[in-house]
Write a structure and sequence with these properties.
The chain has seven helices and 31 strands. With 439 residues, the protein is an alpha/beta fold. The protein is elongated.
Length: 439
């Protein structure tokens, strides 16, 4: 994922005063080499959540034959024109037709065939009388709405209690889908109903853009896993859960690798072990200027991995590139503070995942809203504050403070309030850009 900008070129800044990149510049670099994954052929259930790589056309009509939509009797409509409960039409039952039947009795004048839901309509029949419109072959009045026992055996009679219109309760061949129809277009996301349609038209496999496989690593010797006791100086690893869940929500297949200690050899070994199953690697932690920031140390061994500081808050330190050269696995290295990591994911990682999916909606929607409280922001930084958006009145309220560790407030937020780089204060009622975080 080699970017368009050269951090060592003109304007990169001296070692004593490194260049600060804008959010837009960094996003452009991150997305520059991102591309949809190549299409593959998958079995239907393996394709759930993927996007179609091509239009799908029906090879046959659906339904493939005229069939009954009710349990009842297939008959000729002329035989029921004068039918009433007092003077029913009495028809001779010439046979039973179950779903899947391939040998069908012919229905002639004065005749009917007992038929089940989904069964093919026999030759000569023009409509189906539901069983509750008949006596069910019992000769004792109106039947229940289900058929059972041996009523309607060949040679028996059925009484039809009302007229039946032509075509009544028959699902016509091709009434749902006609052979040659485009039933799903390229780019469609395959959910349960789309997969059901593909199965219904006889497709066993489908060509899709696969969901990218994202490996999420959180680094830090201070991390312990949830369920374990956090002793002095230790904290529970939340980043790997937040980022893995966010990757899944964005459409990826995600693998969590939590709590990699601050040890260069261990991190190298974990990376090498994960490369084989990754289309994208996302790390959190170890990208600032700390003495134990081993992520920067390890990735310095890989050509094409760039670390930089952005004009944003939170999330100033960022890293991106590829592991293994131009054709290697893309990497996005995020800061370790939980709020910084999540906001960085939303701004930079999610668009990469959506691009890999071939999705048209790469970025989160942005709306304009009036803030209910005064806002402040550091000069020269694009501030992303957590907020709650009220679509009913177009207002947005800040949630929690500015700290990049406030996960309690983050869990209450459904949007990000954006304060531009050249703005340090906004009074209540000011109109701001709001990034919506809800799917």
């Amino acid at each position: 994922m080699t970017g368009k900008h050269d951090p060592c070129g003109e304007g990169a800044g001296s070692p004593a005063s490194p260049r600060l990149w804008s959010v837009d510049e960094h996003l452009a670099d991150v997305l520059f080499a991102a591309a949809p994954l190549p299409p593959i052929e998958l079995r239907l259930l393996d394709a759930q959540g993927c996007r179609l790589a091509e239009d799908v056309r029906a090879g046959a009509d659906l339904p493939p034959f005229d069939n009954s939509s009710m349990d009842g009797y297939a008959l000729r409509t002329a035989d029921t024109v004068r039918a009433t409960e007092q003077y029913p039409s009495v028809l001779t039952v010439v046979g039973d037709i179950a779903a899947g039947a391939d040998e069908l009795p012919k229905v002639g004048p004065g005749q009917a065939a007992r038929i089940m839901t989904g069964a093919p309509v026999p030759p000569g029949a023009e409509a189906v009388a539901p069983v509750e419109w008949t006596d069910g072959g019992t000769g004792t009045g109106q039947a229940a709405d289900t058929m059972g026992g041996d009523e309607g055996a060949p040679g028996d009679e059925v009484r039809v209690l009302r007229p039946v219109a032509e075509g009544a309760f028959i699902r016509r061949r091709g009434s749902d889908v006609t052979a040659g129809d485009t039933v799903l277009e390229a780019g469609a996301v395959l959910g349960p109903t789309q997969l059901g349609l593909l199965a219904a038209i006889g497709r066993a496999t489908v060509r899709v853009r696969p969901r990218p496989r994202v490996v999420v690593l959180s680094t830090g010797s201070e991390l312990v896993q949830p369920g374990e006791e956090a002793g002095p100086g230790r904290i529970h690893d939340s980043n790997s859960f937040t980022l893995t869940a966010a990757a899944i929500a964005a459409g990826a297949v995600a693998y969590r690798v939590g709590g990699v200690p601050d040890d260069a050899a261990t991190l190298r070994a974990v990376l090498e072990d994960q490369l084989g199953r990754a289309d994208l690697i996302v790390t959190s932690g170890g990208v600032s200027v700390g003495a134990y920031d081993v992520v920067k140390e390890v990735f310095a061994d890989y050509a094409g991995v760039d670390f930089r500081r952005l004009r944003m808050q939170p999330g100033k330190p960022q890293g991106y590139g590829r592991i293994g050269g131009e054709r290697g696995v893309p990497l996005l290295a995020l800061p370790g503070n939980p709020v910084s990591a999540y906001i960085s994911f939303e701004l930079f990682v999610r668009p990469v995942i959506r691009t890999m999916l071939g999705a048209p909606d790469v970025h989160r929607p942005v709306v304009r809203a009036a803030t209910t409280a005064a806002l402040r922001s550091p000069a020269g930084r694009r501030q992303f504050l957590r907020g709650r958006y009220r679509p009913a009145d177009g207002a947005v309220s800040p949630v929690g403070g500015e700290g990049s560790h406030l996960v309690g407030a983050l869990a209450q937020a459904d949007c990000l309030i954006t304060v531009p780089e050249d703005t340090t204060a906004l009074p209540a009622g000011s109109t701001v850009d709001v990034v919506l975080l809800t799917d």
